[in-house]
Amino acid sequence: MATSPERTKRPLTEPSRRLEAVPAYMFAELERRVAEKRKAGIDVISLGIGDPDRPTYPEIVAAMQTAVADPANHRYPSNRGREEFRNSCAGFYAERFGVDIDPETEVMPALGAKECIYHLCSAFLDPGDVALASDPGYPVYTGGPALAGAAATLMPLRAELGFAPDLDGIPVDDLERARLMFLNYPNNPTGAIAPEGLFERAVELAREHEILVVHDNAYSETTYEGYVAPSFLATPGAKEVGVEVFSLSKGFNMTGWRCAAVLGNPDAIASYWRLKTNVDSGMFEALQMAGVAALAGPRGPIEEMNVIYARRRDLLVDALREIGVDVEPPKGTIYVWAPVPDGHTSVSFAELVLEEAAVVVSPGSMYGPSGEGFFRISLTTHDERIAEAVTRLREHLAPGA
Ligand SMILES: *Cc1c(COP(=O)(O)O)cnc(C)c1O
After folding, report:
1. Same domain, 127 and 182
2. Measured between alpha carbons, how far is 13 from 120 in angstroms, rounded to an integer?
3. Do 309 and 222 contact (CB within 8 A), yes or no?
């Protein structure tokens, strides 16, 4: 009896080993404290999450309203995407980035950058393979490889290199095992912009070691002081070795819509397509038409958002400097990334800010070991709440307060 095969099976509710390999979420204690404070009636201001507070631009909403009323859009879409959507992505890339995209073979829709990054891991990684992941970085760069049964090797982003990875310091063994490399500029969480020469060096390494570069372009439209972020695909040779995931979530206030595209190397896109035909049935065609309206729409609303974010950024940077936090205003993204004061860890400082000011900031260590010693503040909270948070920081955390 004891040797029946059933006895050797794992309990029915136990998740797969791949799921168990996903790094555990380690900030339960902080969340518990936030919940406790709110329950006690304390008005906690969260500057933790990066999720635009302003509505999607009206012309995009109007395009969706029209498209959703058309029964032609109610049936299964194809994973390949509508011609209009692919054409408008290609048009946007030509005009905005000077990048030539073949709408037939070099672009397809993705149900958000998160989905796309995860599925690129499934499409390209086997057990034993490695993905090179920015550290600190967007959590899917490590979770995606783990769920594909592969491994992530961290590339620390070095402050002294402008929060770039030291590509020339990656051990050859890791380069030999690596099949993917994740880069992301303007960068979450550090707010850094792509340092000169980084993309060029990535293309060289990718060629030399057969690595597909995945550039996560979530923030190219959210920049300040006249800085215009490039596409990775504008780098000579990039299309031979890489793809770019372009998300409409942040720049167009569309996080809830799940609208993105993957562009670049046609063979890589064909593999993603092949995988996706086994996973989902494409992007709602009405949403694709909303995406067209976004990409072909006026830039005014984007510029207005950037003015709003820059104002919030400056308020926060001033307040942080007053409480002794030395911070440079970022040129892009919706985040301020700052070093914690001496004597603190990322978590102890986040806890202090919560206790003293009832403000939530994200511990930098949430985004990887190299985030230790930093914290992240998001700019996606209403102006009045940001102003209130700033007042509280000054009142409760300034030296001598
Ligand atoms: C917000 C964010 C995403 C998520 O984009 P979606 O298109 O909403 O899935 C991806 N990458 C980075 C770096 C982000 O900050």
Report:
1. yes
2. 28
3. yes
Domain count across the chain: 2
Range of the domain at 334: 17-55+300-397
Q: What is the pLDDT of residues 317-354, one digit of tens each?
A: 999 999 889 899 999 999 999 999 999 999 999 999 99
Residue 344: Cβ-neighbour burial (10 angstroms; 0-12, 13-18, 19+):
middle
Centre of ligand 1 from the C-alpha of residue 50, in Å: 9
Give the relative orientation of helices 28-39 and 346-357 as an angle to the nearest 10 degrees. 0
Ligand 1 centre to CA of 325 (Å) is 27
Nearest by Cα to 121 from 205, 51, 18, 255: 18
Atom of ligand 1 nearest to the CA of 254: 8
Burial 10-33 (b: 16+ CB within 10 A, else e): eeeeeeeeeeeeeeeeebeebeeb
State the Cα–Cα distance between residues 330 and 334, nearest whole angstrom. Answer: 9
Q: Tell the residue nearest (CA) to atom 11 of ligand 1.
A: 218
Give me the half-sphere count of Cα atoms (radius 13 Å) on the Cβ side of residue 391.
7
Same domain, 117 and 231: yes
